[in-house]
């Protein structure tokens, strides 16, 4: 039986695609620039308005076309003040984002070609971004549900040891949201009761149709 690919086609990236898209540091910097300053348009602190910025030769920075004030796409990111090349950072992110069963700092060291100390620092920085809880699901239909995580109950007899649903004292409630055909968010929450238990950082678009266990909200 053919297994259906769960990752949307426009999000799939093979190693060949990656190397073609990011062959060097220049292409990585240009990608960052476009993500943060589309078409080179960014706020110039000196001019105090939006200005077109152009690349500064020999430096990972862009200068205002009017006054020459410089900005860097790496400012305020995990790449700032790092002596490791952008391509190596991007490759490490690709490895961590595309490996289904996880990856270790030791494997990043071998694959990327850096010291273990550098690999561990990259691993920690990238993992902090991958586990960032403050995300918003953009899909038009979002499903929500909860589960309870914990060890097996001991010293329980009969039906007392098999409790389901919200009657799970001592177990940790985990809340999850998934947009149909898209991203998933899961996080630990204090409680799973009523309609007001949605964690603050689990957000959706106001127009999204939300399925909450057996209820539907708009």
Instruction: Identify low-pLDDT runs.
Output: 214-218
Determine Rg (CA atoms, Å): 23 Å
Sheet with the most strands, sense and barrel status: 5 strands, mixed
Q: Name the structural class.
A: alpha+beta
Residue-averaged pLDDT, rounded? 78
Distance between the termini: 37 Å
Please outline what is shown here.
With 218 residues, this protein is α+β, with helices and mostly antiparallel strands. It is built from five helices and eleven strands; from the N terminus they run ααββββαααβββββββ.
Account of the 3D structure:
The chain is of the alpha+beta class. Among the domains are: 8-22 and 81-132, no CATH class; 135-151 and 167-217, no CATH class. Helix content is 26%, strand content 23%. The protein has helices at 15-21, 25-36, 86-98, 105-113, 116-130; strands at residues 41-44, 49-55, 62-64, 70-71, 135-137, 141-149, 172-179, 184-188, 202-204, 209-212, 215-217. The strands form three sheets. A five-stranded mixed beta sheet has the order 8-7-6-10-11, with no helix packed on it. A four-stranded antiparallel beta sheet has the order 1-2-3-4, with no helix packed on it. It has a two-stranded parallel ribbon with strand order 5-9. Strand 3 (62-64) and strand 4 form a beta hairpin. It starts with 14 loop residues before the first helix and ends with a strand. Residues 214-218 have low confidence and may be disordered.
